[in-house]
Design brief:
This protein is of the alpha/beta class. The chain has 18 helices and 16 strands. Strands 7-6-12-13-14-11-15 form a seven-stranded mixed sheet, sandwiched between helices. Strands 9-2-1-10-16 form a five-stranded parallel sheet. Helix 1 (14-25) packs parallel to helix 11, helix 6 packs across helix 7 (149-159) and helix 8 crosses helix 10 (196-209). The model has no long low-confidence stretch (mean pLDDT 97). Helix content is 36%, strand content 16%.
């Protein structure tokens, strides 16, 4: 007879792993099922281009992991997870041959912003002084009473604005505006829409408070470390076990699903009432991503040499250009000059490539489900700021939205955030509900990035979902 566990968790992405670990740390028996051959979800690494070159399949840079209350409560070193910091968190090159740098120090960053030095310092220093409280509040469910309300009240008036509104209202110069636009564009919404400013502020705050590190040896180490920790706590991990229906699951007091609403509806079938199905079916997915990985025979030849100090480089020029690129994507077009997020992990972690060689990773936003090949457009943006880049390419790997979804069903249409994160779906994710993790099905919970606080490798969606299940089902 099949043993009844306290909880079964489906999906071993960062949030599913975090949910399982949280339950096991509370003394509950946990079975974690993963459809793929390895754990990780959007936190995997592989030799995608050539032997000896280790690439991050999706997530690559980890400010959210460095600042997450969940990860900060784990013995990361013992789990084989080493966060490695580059010389600077971020570089943003411009067409004049210089680059705007996000440094760990607010003062050092401000010094590179010319007339906006005081405005930048005045914006960021109060947030950095309360970094732990601000980050914990932002990564909590929207309706949860904040532990540090004063800290959130300080950031909320800025965070709930649009990125263009904050940048133009706060900064007079192109350099500060460009730096902020590049960070805010991680939101994958229009920079004229709220709360795109909040994403820019959070990433800037994290850059100063905890940095933008890479994981030595690849992002897979995070997932492998969490799986090992779960086993140490008595949990079970079974890979190569896809689940297409809830009826396939072994008996448990609670079920936690690291899936998006689309997969939940398919797994629930007739068990979910029509009205509840209609509400979940209205959940909106965001733009997709087109991603490239390169094996390089040397470092990227940046025109602005300071770019070599950063593991993350934003390519897009001015605020106006980045905003136009993101507007194009949201109206279903493919920008000729896309905003590109580039990571050169081997700058901070030489183990990613053979001696003297380098890796690089980049993606741009595209309309959800796009079939366009953005290779030339992305490489043109790199070449724009690093002439001679193409001559360094030994091999490349390209993945469009369809391939990303095939390898990770949670990336619907190539959406790596688990759903649109505009204001409505930030405050009510996946649907308006007092407990956003509970589903209409008794004992069934969502723990994916389709729940608060949304996308990123922070584990907090899984952590809060597990806390909800412990309170409601497993007390």
């Amino acid at each position: 007879m099949t043993r009844r566990r306290d909880a079964v968790v489906v999906g071993a992405g960062p949030n599913g792993l975090a949910a399982a670990v949280t339950l096991a740390r509370a003394g509950r028996s946990v079975l974690l099922l993963e459809g793929a051959a390895t754990v990780g979800g959007g936190c995997r690494s592989a030799e995608l281009t050539a032997p000896g070159f280790v690439h991050d399949v999706c997530s690559a840079i980890h400010p959210l992991a460095a600042g997450s209350p969940f990860f900060r409560g784990l013995p990361l070193a013992r789990l084989g997870v080493e966060l490695v910091h580059p010389g600077a968190p971020l570089a943003h090159p411009l067409d004049d041959g210089t680059a705007v740098m996000l440094e760990r120090s607010v003062a050092a960053t401000a010094a590179g912003l010319g007339p906006d030095a005081d405005a930048y310092a005045g914006l960021m220093e109060p947030l950095v002084a309360r970094a732990d409280a601000v980050v914990a509040g932002v990564l909590a469910p929207p309706l949860r009473p904040p532990r540090h309300p004063a800290a959130l009240l300080r950031v909320a008036p800025h965070a709930l604005r649009s990125a263009t509104g904050l940048a133009r209202g706060r900064f007079a110069g192109a350099r500060a505006r460009a730096l902020f636009a590049g960070m805010a564009a991680h939101s994958m919404i229009r920079l004229e829409d709220r709360p795109s400013a909040g994403v820019g502020l959070l990433l800037g705050l994290l850059g100063h408070a905890v940095g933008w590190p890479v994981v030595r040896g690849g992002s897979q180490r995070i997932a492998d470390g969490l799986a090992a920790h779960l086993r140490d706590l008595g949990g079970e991990v079974v890979t190569g076990r896809p689940v297409s229906a809830l009826g396939e699951l072994p008996p448990a007091r609670a079920v936690l699903l690291d899936v998006t609403p689309r997969q939940l509806l398919a797994m629930a079938g007739e068990r979910m009432a029509p009205r509840a199905r209609r509400r979940l079916a209205r959940f909106r997915y965001g733009p997709g991503a087109f991603k490239l990985d390169w094996a390089l025979d040397g470092p990227i030849p940046w025109r602005a040499p300071e770019c070599a100090r950063a593991a993350t480089v934003h390519l897009g020029g001015t605020l106006e250009e980045i905003a136009a690129s993101e507007r194009d994507v949201l109206r279903g077009a493919h920008p000729a000059r896309p905003y590109v997020l580039l990571a050169q992990q081997s700058v901070a972690d030489p183990s990613r490539a053979p001696a003297g060689r380098h890796t690089a990773w980049a993606y741009c936003h595209v309309p959800g489900g796009s079939t366009a090949d953005m290779t030339a457009a992305i490489e043109a943006q790199v070449e724009r700021f690093a002439p001679g880049f193409r001559d360094r390419v030994i091999a490349r790997s390209a993945r469009g939205p369809a391939e990303m979804e095939r390898r990770n069903p949670n990336h619907v249409g190539g959406d790596i955030n688990g759903g649109m994160q505009d204001l409505r779906q930030t405050l009510a994710r996946p649907v308006p509900r007092a407990d956003p993790y509970a589903t209409p099905l008794p004992g069934v919970y969502l723990c994916s990035s389709s729940t608060p606080p949304g996308g990123g490798v922070h584990g907090m969606c899984g952590y809060w979902a597990a806390r909800s299940a412990l309170r409601r089902e497993l007390a």
